[in-house]
Records
---
Amino acid sequence: MKVLVAMSGGVDSSVAAGLLIEQGHDVVGATLKLWGGVSDSGCCSVADVDDARRVAQMLGIDHHVFNYTEEFERHVVAPFVAGHAAGESPNPCIECNRHIKFDLLFERADRLGFDAVATGHHAQVLSRDGQHFLVRGADDQKDQSYVLGYLDEQHLAVLLLPIGAMQKSEVRQHAERLGLRTWDKPDSQDVCFIEASKGREVFLRSRIELTPATIVDGVSGEVLGETSTAELMTIGQRRGVLPGRDGEKRFVSRVDIAAQRVEVGRLEEILISTIHLDEPSLTFSHEAVEHNTVVLAQWSAHGRPQLATLRHDRQHERPWSLQLHAPARPVAPGQTVVLYRANEPEIVEGAAIVTGS
Amino acid sequence: MSTQYYFDHAASAPRRDEVAQAMARWQHGVVGNPSGSHRAAREARRAVEEARDDIAHFVGAKPGGVIFTAGGTESCHLAVTGVANHHRRHHETTSIVISRVEHTAIIDAVELLVRDHPSVSARYVDVDSDGVVDLESLTMALSPDTAVVSVMTANNETGVIQPLDGVHAAVKESMFEGVVTHTDAVAAAPWLDLAAVTAPIDMISICAHKIGGPVSAGALIVRGDVLLDAVVPGGGQERGRRGGTVDVAAAVGLATAVRLTMAERDDVNQRVGEYQHQLLAAFRQLPGCVITAAGASRLPGTVHVTFAGLASDELLFLLDQAGVCAAAASSCSSGAAVASHVLAAMEMDPERARGSLRFSMGAETTEEDVVALITILTSVVDRLHAES
């Protein structure tokens, strides 16, 4: 098969390319140039492109750099900024995977005559009865099925995930065996367009004015403090929130940028049992799941999946929601929730963006 | 790669055998330091001075005005920074005037000066929709504190030739004293008679690898009494204008390439000029193809076009698969094709600019290359239109 491998310069995609070559595929590497600005983290720096190119040279395959900086700005960075300005907590990596890697790159690969696209994600594609399913990666610590949760049959049918069945240690062993210079490169963890040394606040301040707000106890109305950056407060977070006078921990329960008000509460006061889903963003890997289906819902990259019932109430203003079987800390609007099957907890059923909880 | 059709001379031209042979003598065994006094040094010095004579002749300047550098970027940097630094040591304010379509070697040098020195400012000269410098805009940009004006001889992306006579006239008519003019002639060097077209300009930058010589070899040529500070001092070489031991092999390589260019220029211009017509006539028939700067006078070796609805990345990928080496003209340090500041200065619609391609030819280009390119590009464009 003619395979286009998305190479980030990291060890996972390098090994993915190496294994596909060993399997006899006709492999071409491509690195996506996404962020036009300064970067010291993530997968966009010139050094990472250099690594990917050098790995491709060592493997003896062609390597191309595809420029998606404009699309990245439009689909990822601008919505990230706009989301924060509206008091939401968007996940830029998911938007990047969705709009850039798995829309634009797949379309391009098809136009350029490739049979399949491969990436170095820790997730697997299961083929069963003529259908393809996204399955969690074998390495629990590294599983990335969450960030790929909205892939559907059309994508999955032409997607290869060569390292998804491996533990990270096996990946590194392969890298060493293949003589790849990235074999001991640390994993990238951060958002590529935010300099790790400066953080989210510095980045957002370069784009928007951040809003000062009063931190208020949501129940008593008591003023507990101030923040100069309401946009950085994430619903459910405790970090940066001082305990109340009673010494008990407080969590953010509501962020109202316009009113310059952040509400906090004790854990038992803020727990939620319903998560509302954004209908246009809701995707299912195959046919839509029926009303009242029990699923496992996960709303952060390495969060613990929670049992929930997916409800579809057409009469309701927000028709799709998740009824949690056990109360949970509130989930910030803008976050993505991925649905796994309750009876086959490794298999992804769909994904959606949270509008509120 | 079995067959290769090389259409990226403007990025780097094929190395000439004659150049490699001439340089070989100075790349092994004892090579004296040209600044020394013994026989080996004298021999090296002689080779350097002969090279200097050839280069001076190439641009119609005196040998004493030739400053050897490590390439076009350094030459441009030295011209702009050297003159501006000298000026700002003697004046309260200093302004630098450059066109918006200059190579980043010039733009970045100017931005660095402005960043580091509060007394230095930059003024940018507009271009028309063909990328030709607007002389009225240039006149407006000039001021009594202007130290240096830099306008390239021809643009490296589009091949558009700039009106250097007009630049000189505008500076002269301004009556401002001491304004030094510079032209980046790197892209024009294979094609134009630099002694003629740059005659009224004070400083000229050239480099070797666009004319079949080695990379990291170039020169800044200064006419008359231009005052400039060395950017890299130390050692006093090149009359104190560029420190460091002169690379004899590089100087000989540049001079050899210069001699070959002068000897062959008329023939190559005529032959490649015909190829350019052939390509343009064929490309015009392709869906969505628009010729860039069609109304301007352009170098014979450059064919710059845009394809509506297609992306450079994809065109280049398929061309590469078919053995054609071409460029989107503008690339960043990662190797990705990036939005071109030249096309932006021409106010080209960014959507159109996304589908831009540059094919650049040279002395080695053959009829067979041209025929192959037309066939391959036609099938690539058809295929991308069929798939999208």
---
Amino acid sequence: MKTNLIKTISKIALVLIPALTLSMTAAAHDPKLHAKKPEKADCSKMDHSKMDMKDPVAMAMMKKCMKQAEASSDKMDGEMDHSKMMDDKMDHDKMDHDKMDDKDMKTDEHNNH
Amino acid sequence: MKILKLLLLLVVLGIAVAATAIYSGIVNVAADEPHSDLVYWLLEETRETSIKKAAQDIEVPDLADPELLLSGGVDYNFMCASCHLKPGQKESDMSVGLYPAPPNLTIAAQSHEGHEHGDDAQSARKNFWVIKHGIKASGMPAWGKTHDDKRIWAMVAFLRRLPELTADQYQILTALDPNDNQEMDH
């Protein structure tokens, strides 16, 4: 009975020890090297003066940056739907003016509330 | 009769040598130990001839559409750049560790040592075939199992322009806006 148990434990150890050792080596270097996060195109680095607008690379870059600009402006519009901002529906009494930044108040031209 | 006996002996000897090589464990398969020059040449020639023959009848579509660069660029960045590098990059874990070393695709095909690339069309055919079918025992996967021909041609279009791209151009072409709804099925 005991010998069977020892045999089973030895077998498990035989599998587990190399597996653990291997997995530790795999995690040994910086995982950031392999992480690929989506990132925005850095369109500020486009040098229009050096670009040949007939070149497919330049055309592709322009297309990408225009699409990105459109997407971010759409997103802004979505987040701030000005058409729904009706002044008469804003309950200014419920606004805690103490918590408002003084700087913002000075620059805010809507100070006749 | 004598010739037949000699041939039989040679066959038996050949099988014995092959069996010894296979089962004795003398062949070193470690990727950090390079092949001998002869073995390397044999494998390289076999691979190049095979790809050339397999790809010779592939019809190359028009690869000038800028949209192809955008789609191919994103795919290259996610699927290939870790081995085949980005502009300005000299090496990566994969490019150093893999054997045979994956070619640096940020430099022009003519600069690669060892084999001919042919003209633009031939190079495009070969690239398409390799991306689609992969290469056995080299670390190059067969992307055709998960990507359609259109996407693979887009990668080929991107590869044609890759050696000319600056790091900034590469970043813009390959970036994937997190807010964009573009498909990311890698």
